[in-house]
Every structure is written in structure tokens, then in C-alpha cells.
Amino acid sequence: MEAYDLEARLMISAVSEKSREQFFRDLKLYALGDTEERVEKMTERRIAGEPIAYILGEWEFMGLPMKVSEGVLIPRADTETLAELAIKLLRARKSTAGARVLDLCCGTGCIGISIASAVADARIVLVDNSLRALRTARQNVIRNSVQRNVTVIESDALAQPPMLLGRFDIIVSNPPYIPTAEIPTLDSSVKDFEPREALDGGKDGLDFYRAIIPRWTEILREGGCVLFECGEGQAAKVSAMLSERGFTTACHKDAAGVDRVVAGVKR
Ligand code: GLN
Fold first, then answer.
1. 143-188 per-position pLDDT tens digit
2. Which of 61, 68, 73 to mutate to test the pocket of ligand 1 (most atoms within 8 A of CB)?
3. Ligand 1 pocket by Cβ (under 6 Å)
4. What are the residue boundaries of the structural domains of the chain, listed by start?
5. Which atom of ligand 1 is nearest to the CA of 229?
6. Is 221 in a helix, a strand, or coil?
7. Could you report the per-residue pLDDT of 58-98, keeping only the tens digit for each?
8. With 0-12 CB in 10 A as exposed, 13-18 as middle and 19+ as buried, what is 135?
9. What stretch of H or E contains 165?
10. Which numeric CATH code is attached to 60-266?
């Protein structure tokens, strides 16, 4: 084993065109303490199919660092469509001061935290029912220094909103929306490693929209807006649910051209 270590070092030293003396002087750049061992463990996890975001423990969303942990969905680039739209809507207001935004099913908190980071005088409330998600979301609030304008609350999106939550200008939500029967067909990196509770949207994938629309939009202010992320092929159905409730709706595409976000304005 010792010999392999030495040989590996000799190879790196040859490839980096350094003399042995230079290489040992710079050893810290290549291997420090248990670096090799840790990289080997990470490599093993990666080979077993685990997503790199869980292995690193952190992933980027809207250019911001987000801690991720087992039991919490990894932030997706698709979801930046929703965050960007919310930021745009806030900035279009006469004043953003005191504007209130609710991030329902917040997971890591990536949507609400990126909004809080972009619009410093808006007030954001992050809600999830998973304690692991709430713990990660709290870490991300600190990681991104947005404690001043973000609050984290435990609540179930499928139930009534808690009393005294107050009213909101914008509700953003990326709820679980994969139809139950499609979960076994997902990529192994998703179905074997990401939390099922963050993916499973019931028989047709729409259970959360069905629960959230009648209950949570009650706490929107007049003229307030709900922004939902949805799965491919679901936008028309989510839009119809909102129209039935008297919302004016619009769909927004993600970078791949998929109708990803449904916006509804309360009339
Ligand atoms: N976008 C995720 C996926 O396709 C699903 C996230 C969700 O259900 N909200 O894996």
C-alpha cells in the first residue's frame, strides 16, 4: 500500500513536471492529511450512483451556495425559472419594502432564499413539513446571510395554513409533482437517492396543487400572485385549476423550452 502511495506521488510529480523536491514542498496542493482517503470514499459513493450534490453537501442555485443533505431534494436549474420570475415581479412593484413572500414546500429553501438575497427588503417565510428540510433550510438562511428577512416555519402544505401567518403578496411553490406510478421509471440517481416525499405528487402528480390552491391562496393579498413549478405536461391542468378559482393565469417556459411555471394572479 505504501508503495502504491509513493508510486502515485511519483506519477503526479512527473505529470506536473516538478522535481521531487518541488513536489514534496507542494505536497499540500495534492494531498493533505486524509485527502486521498476522503476522495476515495467520495469516488466510491459516486460510482454507486449517488448524486454529486449529496456527496459534496452543497450545490449552487441562482449563483448562491445551498447546503443539501440526505432527505432533501437537490435544487434544480429548472427551478431558477420560478425564482427569477418571483424576483422580476417583486422588482416591478412600486415598492418592495415589506412585500411578503411565502415559499411553500421549501426543501433546501433555495427559492425563497434566492428571492431574499435579491430583494433585501422583502420578507420571506419558508414552509415545509419535513424536519430534515427545515434544518437544511435554516442552515442555508445562515449560509447566505439572509436571517434578517427570512423566517422558517413547520407546516403541512396539504393542510390549512396556520393561524396568524398573515397575508402574502406572492406564494411560490415547487411541490412534489411526479405521478406515483412514474417514480420507478425515474433516473436511478433520483429514485434511489432523493426523498420520495419530495417527489411523489399522488396518482396524477397534482395532489399538492389540488390542496394548495383552495387553502393557501386564501392568504394572498388582493392582486397577489401564486407561482407554481410543475412537471412536463402539467401546466395546462394546473392553469385550469387556478382559472376555476378566479385567477388570471400565464405559463412560463424553462431554459429547455418546457412549460415549467404557472403564474396565477388573484382577481
Ligand atoms: N424536478 C424534479 C424531477 O424531475 C421533481 C421535483 C418535484 O417533484 N417538485 O426530478
1. 999 999 999 999 999 999 999 999 999 999 999 999 999 999 999 9
2. 73
3. 76, 78, 174-178, 190, 199
4. 2-48, 60-266
5. 9
6. strand
7. 999 999 999 999 999 999 999 999 999 999 999 999 999 98
8. middle
9. none
10. 3.40.50.150
Helical ranges in 126-244 per DSSP H = 131-143, 188-191, 207-216, 235-244
Q: Which residues contact 68 (CB under 8 A, 6 or more apart)?
A: 53, 54, 57, 58, 59, 74, 75, 108, 136
| Cell of residue 46, nine digits | 459516486
Amino acid sitting at position 141: V
Distance CA 104, CA 236 (A): 21
Torsion of CA 206, 207, 212, 215, to 10 degrees: 130
Give the residue, by CA position, lying nearest to ligand 1 atom 2: 199
| Residue of 59, 76, 254, 258 to test ligand 1 pocket, by largest number of atoms within 8 Å of CB | 76
